[in-house]
Q: What sequence folds into this?
């Protein structure tokens, strides 16, 4: 597992996967099913694993935190990078950061707290969490009123943050005045697009962000990696073709619940049994929704496998 300090090359080397976390009926971690999911992603070219919202770290306490992150780290390959999350409330984040301080993770992501929080208070909290952790952290921007751009710049200059996951959802990602202001305060080398494949083209092509995170990469890692490679090569027509393949599943995630739909999609596509969702979330039990998720995830997985087979066939023919 990567243990060295975070660099721009780390942020752009792989799609930053944001996977769910498989659990047994008693809510303990299902080691083998998580191993299956990690192996599936690694076979598709994904080497960065960010455990945050989709893994429901929001509700993960302090008592079992060390065992959880240690288990995940043990499942990762030697050349993979694991990013755990802390928070979202300040007290829990400080306790979790103290636990991580004695581990080898080069960074962690601070989950955003919507209430009770103010921009100045959130900035002060992130600085204190980074100090407790002893290393720079990743800030997670989900709303325009969470952190002021000038405070983000100060956190970067002070060495408190090593990256920013930018996940402010807009109907038109090109019309993003807040992102423009953030880019006026901090280097774009630190910012990764944090909303999956849907805005990835605009974020990397027009705003020159460094990379992107994805949940649906769990189903189609080869295609998501191909999208990243197309963007690096500035082949935007190819990138648009690949992105279109993700939209049926992404539409379901946006329409129902990004976390819950992804959890079921991984299970229903046969990649790994994610089991019960960790409270305070619950599994989807609507049969019509499950049927749609199974169809969309199954189709995306099949398209991913076809793309892999086509690449292998091309190499064999050569």
A:
């Amino acid at each position: 597992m990567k243990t060295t300090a975070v660099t721009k090359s780390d942020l752009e080397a792989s799609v930053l996967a944001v996977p769910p976390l498989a659990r047994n009926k008693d809510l303990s971690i299902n080691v083998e099913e998580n191993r299956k999911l990690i192996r599936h992603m690694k076979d598709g070219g994904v080497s960065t694993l960010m455990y945050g919202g989709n893994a429901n770290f929001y509700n993960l306490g302090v008592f079992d935190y060390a065992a959880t992150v240690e288990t995940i780290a043990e499942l990762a390959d030697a050349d993979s990078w694991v990013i755990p999350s802390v928070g979202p409330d300040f007290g829990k984040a400080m306790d979790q950061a103290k636990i991580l301080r004695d581990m080898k993770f080069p960074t962690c992501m601070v989950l955003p707290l919507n209430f009770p929080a103010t921009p100045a208070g959130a900035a002060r909290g992130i600085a204190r969490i980074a100090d407790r952790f002893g290393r720079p952290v990743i800030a997670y921007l989900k709303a325009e009123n969470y952190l002021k751009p000038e405070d983000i710049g100060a956190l970067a200059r002070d060495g408190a943050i090593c990256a920013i996951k930018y996940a402010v959802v807009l109907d038109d990602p090109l019309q993003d005045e807040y992102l423009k202001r953030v880019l006026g305060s901090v280097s774009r080398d630190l910012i990764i697009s944090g909303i999956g494949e849907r805005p990835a083209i605009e974020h990397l092509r027009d705003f020159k962000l460094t990379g992107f995170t994805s949940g649906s990469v769990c189903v189609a890692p080869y295609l998501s990696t191909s999208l990243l490679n197309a963007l690096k090569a500035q082949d935007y027509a190819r990138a648009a073709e690949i992105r279109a393949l993700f939209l049926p599943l992404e539409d379901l995630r946006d329409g129902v619940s990004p976390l819950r739909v992804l959890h079921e999609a991984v299970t229903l596509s046969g990649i790994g049994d994610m089991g019960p969702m960790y409270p305070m979330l619950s599994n989807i039990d609507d049969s019509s929704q499950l049927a749609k998720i199974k169809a969309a995830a199954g189709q995306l997985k099949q398209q991913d496998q076809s793309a892999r087979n086509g690449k292998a066939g091309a190499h064999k023919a050569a």
User: Anything to note?
Assistant: The longest strand covers residues 161-166. Confidence is low (pLDDT under 50) at residues 314-318.
